[in-house]
Design brief:
This protein has 256 residues and is α/β, with parallel strands linked by helices. The chain has one domain: TIM Barrel (Alpha-Beta Barrel), CATH 3.20.20. The radius of gyration is 17 Å and the shape is globular. The protein has eight helices and 15 strands. Strand 1 and strand 2 form a beta hairpin. Helix 1 packs parallel to helix 2.
C-alpha cells in the first residue's frame, strides 16, 4: 500500500471537485478548492518527493471551450515529471501516443472502452495495440445502484450496464497494467471511503489498484489499510492541505 498523488484539472485550473457534481453543460461543478498554482508545480513537487504512479485527470470534455487550456496544463505537468505520472480524460487510441511522448507513464481510459453502456473490446484492442498493455490503466470509477457498484463514464455522469465483480476485473485485467477506481459518491466529500467497494477490490487483488474517494484522516488511512489488507494503493485530494484540506501532505507522502 502506498500513497499516489493526483492533479485534477478543470477549466484550465488545478481543482478539487465534488465528484457527483461535475456537469459538461456549462462546464460547472461544485468546487472544494481552486489552486493559484499551475499543474507542473504539483508535478514538480511529486517528482522531488519521489512519488510515482499518481494521476493527472483532464476534467473537461473535448467540446468544452476550456478543453485546450486544461490539456495544456496537463501536458506541462507531464513534461515536468517525465515517466512519473499517468494521465486520463478523453484518451483514445488516436491521441494516446501524444501523452506518452509528452512523458506519461500510462494512459487512463474509461469512456473510450465503453459503448452504449457495455465494454467496447474493439477499442480496448486498438488501444492495446497502440501503446501496449503495460501502459494502460482502466478507470473503473463507479457509483452504487441496486446493490452493485456500476461503472460510470463521461466524467462520472453516465451509468453503464457493467458493474464491478471478480469476473469483470478478471476480464478487463487482460488489457491493462493497473486499475484506478474512484468511489464517486464519496469523491470530494471527505466523509470516509466506500468500505464495501474496498473490500471487493482487496479480495480480488491480481494487478495494482488505486482507490480514490472519501479518505480524509490518518485514522481513515489506517482503517483503509485494515480493510484492504494493505493490498491497494490510495489517493487523497480535497482532504490534503495541498488542496485546502487539513491532512498534512508531508505526513502521508511516504505512507506504506
Amino acid at each position: 500500500m502506498k500513497f499516489r498523488p493526483c492533479i485534477d484539472i478543470h477549466n484550465g485550473k488545478v481543482k478539487q471537485l465534488v465528484g457527483d457534481s461535475l456537469r459538461d453543460k456549462g462546464d460547472t461543478a461544485e468546487e472544494n478548492f481552486v489552486s493559484d498554482r499551475e499543474a507542473p508545480d504539483f508535478a514538480g513537487l511529486y517528482k522531488k518527493d519521489g512519488l510515482k504512479g499518481g494521476h493527472i485527470i483532464i476534467l473537461n470534455s473535448k467540446d468544452s471551450k476550456y478543453y485546450e487550456a486544461t490539456k495544456k496544463q496537463a501536458l506541462k505537468a507531464l513534461m515536468a515529471y517525465p515517466g512519473g505520472m499517468q494521465i486520463g480524460g478523453g484518451i483514445t487510441a488516436e491521441n494516446a501516443m501524444e501523452y506518452i511522448e509528452a512523458g506519461a507513464s500510462h494512459i487512463i481510459v474509461t469512456s473510450y472502452v465503453f459503448k452504449d453502456g457495455k465494454i467496447n473490446y474493439d477499442n480496448l484492442n486498438r488501444l492495446k495495440e497502440t501503446v501496449g498493455k503495460d501502459r494502460i490503466v482502466v478507470d473503473l470509477s463507479c457509483r452504487k445502484k441496486d446493490g452493485h457498484y456500476y461503472i460510470v463514464t463521461d466524467r462520472w455522469q453516465k451509468f453503464t450496464e457493467e458493474f464491478i465483480n471478480e469476473k469483470q476485473l478478471d476480464e478487463l485485467s487482460k488489457y491493462c497494467d493497473e486499475f484506478l477506481i474512484h468511489g464517486v459518491d464519496a469523491e470530494g466529500k471527505s466523509g470516509g471511503m466506500e468500505k464495501e467497494l474496498v473490500e471487493i477490490l482487496a479480495k480480488w487483488n491480481k494487478i495494482p489498484i488505486t482507490y480514490a474517494g472519501g479518505i480524509s484522516s490518518i485514522k481513515q488511512i489506517e482503517e483503509f489499510k485494515r480493510i484492504s489488507g494493505g493490498k491497494i494503493d490510495f489517493t487523497i485530494g480535497s482532504a490534503l492541505d495541498l488542496f485546502g484540506g487539513k491532512l498534512p501532505y508531508n505526513e502521508i507522502k511516504n505512507i506504506k
